[in-house]
Amino acid sequence: MLTNAGFTAFAVCCFFTLASPARADDSHNDLPGPSGLTARIGSSVGFTNVEDQQLSGLGGQVAMGIELDFLAVEVEYESLSLLEYNGLSNDKRGELRRVGIVGRLFFATFQQSPTSRSRARLFADVGTGHQWGQRHGYKSFKRNDVSFGGGFLLDHTMKARRRGLPFTSIGWQLGWRITAVRRPDRGTALLIKCKGFECPTPELERGYDFGLVLGSSMRARW
Known about the structure:
The chain is mainly β. It contains one helix and ten strands. The strands form two sheets. It has an eight-stranded antiparallel beta barrel. β1 and β2 form a beta hairpin. The longest helix is centred in the first third of the chain and has 28 residues, at 2-29. The chain is elongated, with a radius of gyration of 28 Å.
């Protein structure tokens, strides 16, 4: 009788001391690290200047890249419809496409505990891109830009399943991007009177076209 009771107590102790840590390892310690290939898809909204005309932009974006802990590099493609507000609604004025490469730094992470699967990550990024498009009634245009921005990523880490999705994390990213495009030099004649052999001298006008885009996208890593 005593032997059976002692064996039962020993079995219960083994169950809680050995089986429980095994479940904890499965749920936390075996989770993948924050590195791998990434993909994003989402929407974009903002404004841009095209040759002194400010237009709104509405469209979508896709991106693919690689993430190495707190650093990431992405190649992104964006397609926007250029719109102008007429007082009642928006009239479509053209299209804008952009391909760019961006380097991203995750500089802060917030989570409940070191073993938490969900976290919020703040980031800043810089990049460069090539834009092309056309305004209705105008010639097509091509231009290069430089960009900088920031935002946050809400990320949830998981274990990749053999018979399911191969993702190791899924999240939602919200970020903004400012672009600067140098305008082509344009010569304008100074309004001065010609005296003898003196003629109007050209003066070069230089400036930049700026744009601001807010992007919201779903992101996956595998």
